[in-house]
Amino acid sequence: MLLLKKWITLIVLMFVLSTVFISDSSLVQGITTAKYFWFAASVCGASLIIPFQLSKKNEIRVTDFFFAAFAIYVCINYFCLNGNPNMRWWLAMLMIPLYVAVRTVAANENMRRLLLAAILAVVLIQAIWGLLQLYGFTRSFHNLYKITGTFFNPGPYSGFFAVGVPLALSYSLDKSLLRCERWLGMATLLAADLVLPAAMSRAAWIAAIVGSVLVLCSVYRSEIKRRLKKLSFYVAILVAACFLAMAMLVGLYYLKKDSADGRRVIWLASMEAVKESQLFGAGFGRFTAVYGDAQAAYFRKQERPLAQIMVADSPDYAFNEYVQIAVELGVVGLALFLLLICSCFVNFRSLIANHYALIAVLVFAAFSYPFSVLPLAILFVFLLALSASSSKKIPVVLPLWFKALGVAACLCITACGACQILPKRAAYKEWSSIRLLYSLNIFDAVVKDYAEFYPKLRHEKYFLFEYALSLSKTEQYTESNRIFEEYLRYGSDPMVYNCIGNNFKEMGDCETAEKMYIRASQIVPNRHYPLYLLMMLYNETAQTEKATDMAQTLLNKPVKVQSTAIREMQQEAIKIINNN
User: Fold this and answer.
1) What contacts 336, CB < 8 A, 6 or more positions away?
2) Using N-to-C axis directions, what is the helix angle for 353-365 and 374-388, rounded to 10°?
3) Is 40 exposed, middle or buried (0-12, 13-18, 19+ CB in 10 A)?
């Protein structure tokens, strides 16, 4: 009976891990959104594990305390500064019962090993999937990239292997494991090493290398200590390591220089948002909404180098989870998160396989956005819960009624999350079919159908943009601007300000239209289109001098990527200069 219980538990948690493989082409962005519904359903099963694991023997660890503190803080922060539960919020909430489920199971050493083996198996399958894509046996999920696995692009896909490589290496070198476990580690390591170079993610390479070096240092600790007794050997190793690290970082920087420079601008601009709300942040999930104003403030503050202006954009993520946490949750939230992480590594001499994988996630998080990608967020929670089992014990015995209250809270969160997420699947499917009308510019029909699904999809910024633009095309300018304003709760794309400006212009409010165009030009200062709209507004309202000045500005503006649209705008500017 006990053996059956263990296998059922393992299978249920495997269903959660298998979220990474789910996609559905009948849904909008089905490679991403289909995972939401599978995850919500599988967490319902995982949460049922928790009551069966409840007993007086359950130990409370330091990591558990900090996880609870961080989760409570996120909830308070969200409802005080945002207060509009959306898909991201409910997915984040479901991580709480998932952590508790994995944590209660991982208290057993055998179950912990089985869960780590399950993670390795998932990574191995992903690697094989990627190799099949690379050699043309199956299709990629992105038109621009040959290899994505079951992700939308190779960045997060590579992050999966950044986690898998140190875990696989640890399993390969651990002689205390069963032969089948070591073979699984070797197979995963080989497959992951074949895929990682092709995926071209520098962040994943750095994370995999850091994790792997730590594994090797741990395995060969005694040999390294013996060698380090000789000072000359120590100096030689230190010099060589510094030289190789510098060479690697410089090489990786120049491999995709514009991308690296763009991320640096994002981090610098994000600091403006942190300064606005230092203590508690802008609110959970609001990074994209506040980033536009932060970047505009960054470029307004002083004249920036042209190189920075040319790489500026309107990102959905900070490409550094610690920066994003600081923006959304403030210094308090970042401090709690760092305390949560540090609690897992109290004793560096007793690191085990899951610790190296967790370190790889944390390194990858410094250059990418793993917590915003559902499969990687799930993997992080698994590794966090597994690592919590070996953190320091809290010498407090909690009464059984208190634990029962915690279980009830987990079940309640799961039920609420599932009830909020699962019914939306039909709306995503209908949205996918209605999008055909949108692509054909049949806006009257789009407005009618989108109005029906608006209550269920109002948290999706792309849906809001399409709905608002369709309203604008059918001359419902006031309602269009109302929906665009809702969009700005989730994003700050300068194109939205252009569209709002166009609506005001059609309503005869040219002064407000001008403000919107100027705001769009300040958010991403390398864009030509807002300046073109300003130029046309001045020209159409007989502001000749302003129109000529803006036309000259447009012509003198450096071009990031030459295109037909840019040439047409420049030709229009030349006409205005000649006519005036």
Assistant:
1) 66, 69, 70, 73, 329
2) 140
3) buried
**What are the structure tokens assigned to 386, written together?**
């597994």
DSSP 303-320: PPPHHHHHH----SS-SS
Please give the Cα distance from 33 to 283 (Å, whole number). 23
Instruction: Return the exposure string of 454-484: e unless at least 16 CB atoms fall within 10 Å of the residue's CB, then b.
Output: eebbbbbbebbbbbbbbbbbeebbebbbebb
* 443, two tokens: 């806006």
CA distance 309 to 265: 9
Give 72's contacts (C-beta < 8 A, 6+ positions apart).
Answer: none
Contact call for residues 378 and 98 (beta carbons, < 8 A): yes
Q: How confident is the model at residue 370 (pLDDT cuts 50, 70, 90)?
A: very high
> Which of 91-105, 227-241, 434-448, 517-531 has the weakest average pLDDT?
227-241
pLDDT tens by residue, 465-503 = 999 999 999 989 999 999 999 998 888 889 999 999 999
Q: Which long-range contacts does 247-252 make (Cβ < 8 Å, 24+ apart)?
A: 248/206, 248/209, 252/202, 252/205, 252/206
The tokens describing 165, both together, are 């490589």
Three-state DSSP state, 347: coil
Residue among 281, 289, 258 nearest 337 (CA): 281
Whether residue 437 contacts residue 466, with contact meaning beta carbons closer than 8 Å, is answered with no
Sign of CA dihedral 317, 319, 321, 323: negative
- Encode pLDDT of 23-70 as tens digits: 988 888 889 999 999 999 999 988 888 887 766 566 788 898 999 999
Domains and CATH numbers, the chain: 2-421 (no CATH), 423-579 (1.25.40.10)
Distance (Å, whole) CA 321 – CA 516 = 30
CA dihedral 364, 369, 373, 378 (to 10 degrees): 50
Task: Return d(Cα 403, Cα 68) in angstroms, integer.
Answer: 13
Structure tokens at 63: 């990591």
Q: How far is CA 292 from CA 14, 147, 313, in A?
A: 40, 31, 9
d(CA 172, CA 185) in angstroms, rounded, equals 5
pLDDT in tens, 379-400: 999 999 998 887 788 777 777 7
Q: Are 317 and 324 in contact (CB under 8 A)?
A: yes
- Measured CA to CA, the distance from residue 226 to residue 497 in angstroms comes to 64
Identify the DSSP state of 525. T
